Amino acid sequence: MPEIKKLDLNDPDTKSADIVAGNIDALKALFPEAFTEGKIDFEVLKGLLGAAVEERDEKYGLNWHGKRRARQIALTPSTGTLLPRPDESVDWDTTQNLMIEGDNLEVLKLLQKSYAGRVKLIYIDRPTTAMRMSSIQMTSPTL
Question: Region 65-93: what's the mean pLDDT?
Fold first, then answer.
């Protein structure tokens, strides 16, 4: 079994990917003139994109009260850490599967950076009414 490295809170490996910062950096690289004083000037960005911008309201979609806040929470980087438990595992050295218990959103954010493009299947068991946590099972030939 490989040795587990001790991490401190300032270690970049303890934080999930910052998706918003990555998106902003990508926009800056593509459209530097759309940024004024470090902020996006959407009018300039619309002009740069030309006819590709559609400004009318959506007609169909999945909407609910709190959707905007849910997106903000999903894009907030997580600072949790997943801890392996080899003593509670079966065939720890040879398995290609993981079972993780915790808050679904937090766990998925933590897994995103390390396992992006390497996971074959994620099964999320819904939380029961008595238990807010659920389990995530991952299967991958390249874990």
Answer: 86
